TrEMBL record:
GO terms, molecular function: rRNA binding; structural constituent of ribosome
Record-linked HAMAP family: Ribosomal_bL9
Highest taxon of the lineage: Bacteria
Residue ranges of every copy of the Ribosomal protein L9 domain listed in the record: 1-46
Name of the featured protein: Large ribosomal subunit protein bL9
Species of the source: Candidatus Zambryskibacteria bacterium RIFCSPLOWO2_01_FULL_43_17
Entry keyword 4Fe-4S: no
Gene behind this protein: rplI
């Protein structure tokens, strides 16, 4: 049975992809949970339009971010997290936690996928993080203090 994914589904695919799955899996698991829709010609057209508008919206957002990326240069983001006596954080700071902190402190909405970090921040102190949008990248500092 051909289906259209309405959300990212682990081990199956990403949003708006058309996949072929067994009838039982689609009708008993995926459709009742609202994860997929049966791929009819009208549904395919509608999803194609949704996909285009979402891509256009993302492109506009990236262009706006590119213009505002220079504002992030030299900025210091401060975060306070729980840590032990040695300065090790109980929970590392990932891209997903850093993006809202950037938005709150600079009013720039950076998506987690634009933040480049090799590994999560796991220690108190000063860290350098890069934001890369298309071919342009900017570095800024993140200061983590123990709370």
């Amino acid at each position: 049975m051909k289906i259209i994914l309405l959300k990212d589904v682990a081990k199956l695919g990403r949003k708006y992809e058309v996949k072929d799955v067994s009838d039982g899996h689609a009708l008993n698991f995926l459709v009742p949970r609202g994860l997929v829709e049966v791929a009819t010609p009208s549904a395919l057209k509608r999803v194609e339009m949704l996909k285009k508008t979402e891509e256009e919206k993302k492109k506009i957002q990236e262009d706006l971010l590119l213009k505002n990326l220079e504002d992030l240069k030299g900025v210091t983001i401060e975060m306070s997290e729980k840590a032990n006596d040695k300065g090790h954080l109980f929970a590392g700071i990932h891209k997903e936690e850093l993006a809202p902190a950037i938005k709150k402190q600079t009013r720039l909405e950076i998506l987690p996928e634009h933040i480049e970090m090799d590994k999560p921040i796991k220690e108190v102190g000063e860290h350098e993080v890069t934001v890369k949008i298309q071919e342009k990248s900017v570095k800024f500092k993140v200061i983590v203090t123990a709370s």
